[in-house]
Protein: ATP-grasp domain-containing protein
Organism: Pseudocercospora eumusae
Amino acid sequence: MTFNSLLRRIHTHHTDSPADKMNTPQRRPTWSRKFSGDDLSKKCVCYIRSTHNVSVEPRDVIENQKQEPIATERIERNPWKTEQRIVIRRTSLKSNATSATAAEHPDEDEDDSCPASNDVLYHCTIPFDHMTWDRMTGNVRQIRIYEQPLSYAISGIFIHQMSCGLSSKNKRSDADHQPLRILLTNGRFPVSLDIARQFKNAGHKVYCVDPLGYPICKFSRASVASAQVPAPHDDSRAYVRAVKEMIRIWKIDLIIPIHEEIFYLADSDEPDILARLFAPPFHLLLRLHHKFEFSKLTQDIGLDVPEAHLCTSMDDVLQIPMDRYPDGIALKPVFGRASTGVHHLHPGQPIPKNIPISPSNPQIAQEWLVGDRYCSYSIVRGGQVEATGCYPVLDTIDGSSSVFFQQKFHPPVYEYIQRFVSALPPFSGQIAFDFIETADGIFPIECNPRATSGLHLWSQTPYLARAITGTLPKEEIERPIRPPRKMLGRESHFQVAAGMLMWEHKNASFKVWLSHMRRLVFTRDVIWKWTDPMPTIAQPFLLTNYYHACRKQGMQLPKLFQQQLIWEPIGEDLDRVNQILMGDKVVDGEEELEEVLGVLDEPQAEEQEMVQVEDIEGSTLGRPSI
């Protein structure tokens, strides 16, 4: 049902009689303040049926809306007030009646921001609990009014959904864009479920593939369909063939990689996959994912990074000058993830002999830093950072996997990400960092060029989905967008409740334990949703099955979840990866790696040209250009 048809239906049920219209006087409101008029980007677009004191019929309003929308004064939330008086009027201010009206009210200034009396449609006082606030701008998004008595004939005021605070002329809703068919490369993680819901909120259709027969997304209304495919860790070619087949069956427009299956897809030679994959080229993925290569890349750019050494044997570890690192070093695989395989080596203490280090399993010895930990998650399109979220590491399962997420705008993190991305060749995809802030500054520990838990910061909003699909407004919005700090007056923070129950509480003080319990009780769960309850209902049964598999295979739950999806090159694959990293191999018949990555030693331009993102409308494929 269109909005105009809704208004006409309301009009048929609540139409004032002709006699009432003739006897109804026109009332001029008492203006608490005047319309600014010069800042239309901060105004809401309103639609109103009719009121008892207005003789304008709804049909006239609809016809007028086709030419000029109806606007209202910007509504600002005042913590000291519980209600807001608003005046709804037509935007047509070029009326001869304005000067005559101003003469009748000499106490008011003469400007076009005060409309004539016949332009006023309705004025009323609105309680704040009837307002829905825009999560990005803090402005009013919707007003719901159901007043008594019914003699006022008020059916409601509908404020058109704002697109990040744009004006009515430039504002674009998700309905203006062609819905995309989006494929998630797995549906087992809370991240998968959350981003599926975000895409659904933005008007897209979501499909998922997973080696598990019953991933959590299978029970969600956000997923149109799901399919079981071979595990990429066990049979990468069969996995790629299955994904290609699902693209054909479901007519997929865009592929969103969730975990390390991104490497299997980016390394494939399937044009149908590469053209739809929202990820950087394979050679750039390697440099970002390889911990030591990422450290070298960051140094070449000129950014701060912890000291690191590449070790392929125990002799390399023994040659590290431990006295330079009073807090020790972290020894971990270059292709590792989270805290898997991490050894904290202290100065003056013996090194464990059972560390699996070899040329086929290289390790990075990284300076151990002590400070505040932060994680970030960003969306990049065409080399421009479209969205960035940042949260401190508070509650974790294994010391590194966060299960509590609260947005924090930390300028050093945002500046670091902007400088890093601007130094790389233009690409489109996801990029996430782990940071540690010390007294000397902020240092990146590692980079994850894929989806991470940071996307939970945008939970229950469509803005991250718009950033990924390139449907963010091109003008009048600051890049990168940030997650909302508050939602409906409450602090915007989320948790994975099942993970919070498995919180790592070793050596936790009573104060820390109490803070954790407070967050557990009063924080929204990313799994639970009133309109989509089945994932939560199915969660106990799924966890029981997962724990049974953990006992059977002798694995912890995080490792079991990732085992089928991890990417660890060995043998010939590792040799090929090393050749690509050394720049001796031509990538996909294009330029050599060093030419593709560019000369990082050259000074970067102070101002980077804004990359225009192609609109989905008019595209022959019905999808954005990746």
Observations:
- The chain has a mean pLDDT of 71.
- The two ends are 33 Å apart (CA to CA).
